[in-house]
Hints:
The structure holds three protein chains of three kinds. Chain A is mainly α. Chain A folds into two domains: about 25-55, no CATH class; about 60-380, ABC transporter involved in vitamin B12 uptake, BtuC, CATH 1.10.3470. In chain A, about 75% of the residues lie in helices and about 5% in strands. A two-stranded antiparallel ribbon of chain A has the order 1-2. Chain A has a two-stranded antiparallel sheet with strand order 3-6. A two-stranded antiparallel sheet of chain A has the order 4-5. In chain A, helix 2 (about 65-90) runs antiparallel to helix 9 (about 240-265), helix 2 packs antiparallel against helix 11 (about 295-315) and helix 11 (about 295-315) crosses helix 14. By secondary structure, chain B is α/β, with parallel strands linked by helices. In chain B, helix 2 crosses helix 12, helix 3 (about 90-100) packs parallel to helix 4 and helix 6 packs parallel to helix 7. The longest helix of chain B has 20 residues, at about 50-70. The N and C termini of chain B lie far apart (about 85 Å). Chain C has a single domain (about 1-115, about 130-275), classed as ABC transporter involved in vitamin B12 uptake, BtuC, CATH 1.10.3470. Chain C has helices at about 1-30, 35-55, 60-80, 90-110, 135-160, 160-170, 175-180, 185-210, 215-220, 220-230, 235-255, 260-275, and strands at about 125-130, 135. In chain C, helix 1 (about 1-30) runs antiparallel to helix 11 (about 235-255) and helix 5 crosses helix 6. The model of chain C has no long low-confidence stretch (mean pLDDT about 85). The interface between A and B is large, with 42 and 43 residues.
Amino acid sequence: MIKNSNSADHVSPIHSSVEGRDNMSHMARNVRWALAIVALLYLPVVLTDRAIFGIPLSNAQLLNLSLTQINLMLIAMMGALSLNFLTGCAGLISIGHAALYAVGAMTAATAGTLWGWPFTLVLLAAGVTGASAGFLAGLPSLRVRGLYFVLSTMALHYIVMYAFLEYQFKFFDVVGIPFKNASLGSFELSTPLRWYGFLLLLTVLVFWGLRNTLRSREGQALTAMRDHELAATSLGVNVRTLRLKAFMLSSAIASVAGALYAYYLTNVTSESFGIGFAIEFIAMIIVGGMGSLGGSLVGAALWLLLPSIINLIASQANETTGLVHLVLVDHKAQLVQLIFGLLVVVLLIFAPDGLAGLSKQWQKRKRNTDSSASAHKGEA
Amino acid sequence: MKIPFTIKTTLLALSGSVALLATAQELPSDGVYKDHIDWGMLMDMSGPASEAQSTYVKGFQDFMRMTNEAGGVNGRKINVLAEDNRYNAATDKIVYEKFVAQTPVLGFSGMGSSGGQSALAPTIRSGKVPVLGTYTPTKALLEPASPLTYHGMCSYKAMAQTGVGYFVDTLKLKAPKVVTVAIESAGGKEFHDYVAESVAKVGGTATAVTMKISAVDVTPQVLEIMNLKPDFITIYGVNNTAVLTMKGLAQYGVKIPAVAITYLAQPQIYAAMGPQAGENYYVSTCVSPGGSDNTPGNLELTAFAEKVGRGALKEDINYAAGWMTGQLVLNRIAALGKDVSRARLVDSMANGFSVDTKGLTAPIVYTKDDHSGLKVHKLISFDYATGKVKHHGEFRDYEKYVK
Amino acid sequence: MLGQVLFGGLAVGSIYGLVALGFAVIFKGTEVFNFAQGMFVVCGAYLAVTAMSVLGLPFFAGAVFIVCAAALLGVLIHALLIQPLSGRPMLSVIMITIALCIVLRALIEMIFGSAGRPLSTPLPSGVITLGSLRISKLHLTAMLVSWVCMGGFGAFFRFTPIGLLMRATADGHEAAVVSGINVNLMNRLAWAIGSVLAAVGGLFLGQLQIVSTELESIGLLALPAVVIGGMQSIPGAIVGGLLVGLVEQLAASYVSPKSSDIFIYGLLLLILMFRPWGLFGQRELGRV
């Protein structure tokens, strides 16, 4: 009698029904992937035409979403992924991500708007400056850890934003820094649909790249360093260089995301990169689950969906009065913030591994009941 | 028997599509329906500029409500889709796209962020959705005049000219020294340039002192003003800008008259300043705040605002501005008759038009090449003894300043 | 003008010192880096508005109301948010205080509206002129009250039995538990004091300027103040506050208003790089 919950994974000649189930679950997984890819490719068409298979959809059915919002979400996903890599996987807490976005935007402004470099080169340049900025920002980590390091990233945020403000006023206008000509060679990124394709590709690349980095030797050393620094050092992990490398990679990605953000909006000011922006990223990775790359995607998606849905509900509530009206219509932006903040609080107290952690627990429990059920069946 | 996963998913997808099919509807693309017209409003309703801007939205919504209660326009009611941009340029972009195709509108008003306007200007100019009645004027949208954009509030140039002109005449100044207190934004810079221009015409000088939009401590700016010893100051910004500057000066016992931009004539500003700081505080405005005079437009506004329980909000100048924008929009939609569409709206305005606001403002005039609208302004201030707004003359007394 | 700027810096710095002191008490007592200290300042300002304008209480009763309500707020926050997270990694605790900022800000804007509110109290206004120096009476009052509070709490920690107990608990939790000290009570007390100090700062800032949620950015300056001074040091917090106030006013007057942030945070960065335990703090042993 095998009661072990992991028994379903062992191939056992006696439990042929279990093997059969394994093949079925493989096929199910492939079908799932196929459906997901089709959905991702068809989604932008639905949002642009506001119709599915030719049937028009109302705004409410589309959850009040537009392709522009999805594109902004993809850019945010890149930021969340890079931050989670740094904070969740490498254990370096940073609220400097808004500043890194700003670094990317400044690079794009210089290389793209002032010097007229082509778009792809601008993005590369943003990555390089991002990495250098990451190196500089990571230097304090050689001296201080933990709390003091967070403070150093906070200080760097304000310093970078001051530099941005001065830069904006010196080379451009109070109105903001303009960006034009986002194009990949001759393929112009002139519609949200084209941006979607490009951004989706980039996000997938970033996700895969980071996942593989985490699985590599260095990536595993990173996780070891996060979990127990002294022990990792005693095993020969060069903690200092590893930290800097992690910061450089994370910052490069964030900087490229910042350049993309600037080009997408076609105009940015220093107010686009406040410290609230950085805090939003941290909230995203906490909600998604620290250390879980997939979780960051969920966190970013939630950050997009929540205001959209609240706005949708609020637009139906125009005629109400009293408390409902006050909360939903007059203060719907505050309602979004309140819900998001409470979500973070509740998750921190009850589910510190975020939504990814909850989903893992749920899957584990499901596997337990499934396997014990089939184990019982096999014996009968 | 356990249902295999693939069959489960397919069933779900099928039922989902059936549900979608069942609830699908027709969507006119111009925002014009059989019984109502959708009109958009894009303002900062919860961010740093929201005090003034959300009141403006309420004024607009209330005017439309009054119109709808009286039967609407040519058989249709006007439904206001008010969107909040939180003073963020990214949100402006999202909302504009929403207004174009997602929740399409006939046209929209507002646009309270000058940065957002400038960023969207090229897109708006080359698009199809008209902007009728912007709250903030920017060169990007107004120069050169585009058939799609019309400014619907007071103009910075006229505010500056009127304020400077009035003080120079009343205080009998020869070569005035003026300081502009402004927040750092495109509008702030423009306003200061206009002030400097007007002051230079009478042989004076103007200096700018800047502060953050969310400033809570302005001691350095106040000290700088005291150092410069101006004859009067002009103020551009949000509520805090005016309140902190005047209170700061009063704290140091300094009495310099100040004229602020129109948006800063609000009951809570007067209250926050108090009689000491507020007695030198004037506002240059093109629209009369509710309850401050007996013109038919003003009385209509006050009566309806009281009916729907607006309270002190009705005396806020931004409420009157929103109301006046409502009059502007209604005037144009009514002129189209039953056949309403974006293209017809744009064409009907192309050769210029004028709107009578029943005394709430001087007549609003647009020409083919000048879409800046209201030009004539006047000065008002708050009389703490009576608790009412005081008008310093009539609109026509000020026409000479904006020639 | 230099004298004017210096005085302004000292006045505003005293308020920062008060808020920083509250922060230091919380940190010393419960080892929590309270990012929400800035919001506690805002809460204090809005409590003042509630007391004076909404409830219409006379000044003394209003002050008592503010102190009690702020203490209650501190205790509630500790019980609901901090205690459940004891033993958790630092990011969780920092993040919950940041999330608290978001929640409090949203709640305040929903209850009071996002418009700024005037705060009228019978605190003296007007100006005293000493030669070329114009001293605002309100600034002077704020400074005096801040110093009285700081001195009072300093004495409280040094001389009263409860104060000694709090310090003992802060120095060694386990030893405190073994000695039979009610550690929970000490923690709650620390949060109550931290909140009250911030609230008093908020009362003055609200009176000096205008009561709005934007006051948070001023309250947040207590963070660099406390780090520069030394996070676990009471006199350090006060000195840090004064320093930040002076740097802010000097930078704003002599360089430009927007540069004050960079001077303060640049100073913070320097301290972090070369003397992370602050000017008055004690070198911490690296913990594994």
